[in-house]
Amino acid sequence: MTIVTELQPALFGHTPPRSQFLKWVGNKHRYAGEIANCLPADHRRYIEPFVGSGSVLATVAPDAGLAGDALGPLIEIWTLLKVNPDALIEHYRQLWGQYVSRPREAYEQARDSYNAHPNGPDLLFLCRSCYGGIVRFTRAGTMSTPVGPHRAISPESLAERVFTWRRRVSNTDFVCADFEETMGTAGLNDVVYCDPPYVHTQRILYGAQEFLVERLWQAIEGCRSRGAKVLLSLDGMKKSGRVYADIAIPDGLFEREIMIDCGGSMLRRFQKRGEDMRGERVHDRLLLTW
Question: What pTM was computed for the model?
Fold first, then answer.
């Protein structure tokens, strides 16, 4: 496998939206352009089976796209963004009106509403107002993150982001599906970008979702056999390079590896809560099958 230490500047058109739509742990907003710049220029369709915050998706802004996730309320957010953005904005506006004067009470009320009946509009408000943007779930599937000390963005700011992001994902279909199902649709000249829950760092965040990396290796090999190209973001180095995520990757599955500087760890900021963050720099690996 060839290891590349530096990326070329992002191509024109591979610039992320100025502001994030969803706050989501592990989001790739700051370096989505670097990842998008690695895509083959002649790909037919862009597929993202772990869509999360959609930063790379919105940066690619594909002419033909498919994005999936196993978390139903998350896909509901993306679907409403595309087909009924006003519903998202209005629900956020109602919750924000209570939140301005009583942030903790309004947040906990929204969280209770979500936990009783998981849904996209509540989740959108929670991810914008929870502590550090860390959307953490229990094994029962309920959200457990407390309210954040910051002030959530205004409905006007959210509306601006909604319509900016909507333009970028207008040609993407969203599906609530397991990653194997979404990747199973990839064929000749398609490109698949995978950003799964990280093996070493995100079990606390995705306790409700069982993820076995061995299944992902099989799905990637299946994509390769059908003529699709795959990019995978994976644990690299943490603790500012002192700890390397030693993951058993099947021989011959990838051709290239690129190390990407992700800055300070979002998860450690949540866990340490105001403590010294020096020495907590994180690097991701970007693995490519071609």
Answer: 0.86
